[in-house]
Amino acid sequence: MASGTENGIVALGIDGLKKRGSFWKKEDFLPEESFQNWGNYVKALSSIKTRLKDRLLTRSQDSIELHEMRAQSGHEMKKNLNWWDLLWFGIGAVMGAGIFVLTGQAARNNAGPAVVISYLIAGISALLSVLCYTEFAVELPVAGGSFAYLRVELGDFVAYIAAGNILFQYIVSGASVARSWTSYFATLCNHNPDDFRINVSSIAEGYNHLDPIAIGISIAVALGACLSIKGSSRFNSIATILHIIVMIFIVVAGLTKANPANYETFVPHGIPGVFTASAVLFFAYVGFDGVATLGEETKNPGRDIPIGLIGSMAITIVTYCLLAATLCLMQPYTQIDADAPFTIAFEAVGMKWAKYFVAFGALKGMTTVLLANVIGQARYFTHIARTHMAPPLLAVINEKTGTPTNATIIMTVANSIVAFFTSLDVLANLLSIATLFIFTLVAIALIVRRYYATGETSNADRNKLIGFLLLIIGSSIATAACWAASKDHWIGYIVTVTVWFLATLGLNFTVKQAKKPQLWGVPLVPWLPSASIAINVFIMGSIDGPSFVRFSVWTSFLLIYYLLVALHASYDAAREIERKAEATQATNIEAGITK
């Protein structure tokens, strides 16, 4: 395998380390020309304006992501997955413990028995994002997922900001699920979760319940992910099928105690309550985006990815709606426990023993979510490192296993550190906004992909596209602001939704589509991606203010790192790829002339 010091592009991986018999060096993390010495770095800093302009305006190409970027890893990932694997990865990535917690909160506080409708609305909203991801994943089956999609359509800088939030989302999500795993394991053992944690009073509240079990389960899952993607898939499929069986048991057992009278007051808090619950329940569907990172390991992306992504979301929506309906038939919504709804509901109807099935189901679900999380985040990180926005050492694919071992180890360490210290309350508030931000960007990128092609789209169509997109985004933000300000005054909604509708209509009829999908495409473009933008932004309006503050702080940190490191590393890497491409083209031309 080539080392990073040989060509400035491919970093030295684990195999290379064994050959050299040494630890990682600076060149393995920063092999680019700008970081070879302090003189080069100062020169690079003095060119920030020029380089930033270049990266802001530069869009990648499909061929670069599919070929040149993959080549940076030294070895190929193994194509071992089919639609069956992706289907169960999709279910396993999404269907964790959220259904067992969020349902109670949404039913009791917001929607009542209409929580079933809220789950359906949230599921359809998530499905819109799934459709956007599916078209990209089929056309660009690479490990980078949304990062690669945004690089191609919205440029390097936007992709970098998204990349930072993607990794942040995965670390927070993985840590949150790992700590939840401890909680449900404690339930199975008839213990309080804090019985398995170490309380350190000298550390600040929210960070003082140390969780060694969370670290243990994270490491165990990461080992499996490092060894084999096919082996991980088999484990995930078996565990997820068992999880579905437990869900079916809960529905069947619960319906034996159903009381239709509990549905007499179906919408106790009106339509606003249903939509408020939908915003909360949307996060029960998060996790599918990790499946899109498995494109490089999929045998037939054009067939397998649509079946896997869309099929898994459809099964999840149906399962969630059935569970929510069962819960509200078992108990009046006013008596549903907000924290442990299914456990308390079974106890209330004399089936106390069923709580162990609930805990077992949650434990199984969280294990597969952890597995899908570490697999997805490692592949994201691998592709980000291929562009040198992260240390290129992390782009290496292990020759024997065909998995991104370096990235998996680093991300597991990050997950474990956060999970060891941080409580669930702190983690939950950090997760939501990053997820919705990325989903919104992917929907915008899909519209850009369909309506803009460099050198083909006229200036008039380009300007109209920009104008309509600004109106779609602006009206979506205004709708969210109206909702946050007052849920009862409908005049504002009529105005903002009308602007959104007319902007989407104008885009549909006045701008010519520049590109048609070759294998699989989202139907009803631009309507469905435009609706996805509006819904994602609308849900953002329900998120608390402190989350936006944390998001701003994290984004500011990303900008500082970008200006000091990532900008120059990615700029040098891009120039190196261009030089290689030009040299290859010259060689081909010369060979053609010789012939």
UniProtKB/TrEMBL annotation:
Residues 520-570 form the Cationic amino acid transporter C-terminal domain. The keyword Transmembrane applies. Coiled coil: none annotated. Keywords: Amino-acid transport, Membrane, Transmembrane, Transmembrane helix, Transport. One of its GO terms (cellular component) is plasma membrane. It is found in: Membrane. GO terms for molecular function: L-glutamate transmembrane transporter activity; L-lysine transmembrane transporter activity. Its main location: membrane. It is a multi-pass membrane protein. It comes from the Eukaryota. Belongs to the amino acid-polyamine-organocation (APC) superfamily. Cationic amino acid transporter (CAT) (TC 2.A.3.3) family. This is Cationic amino acid transporter 1. The gene is CAT1_12.
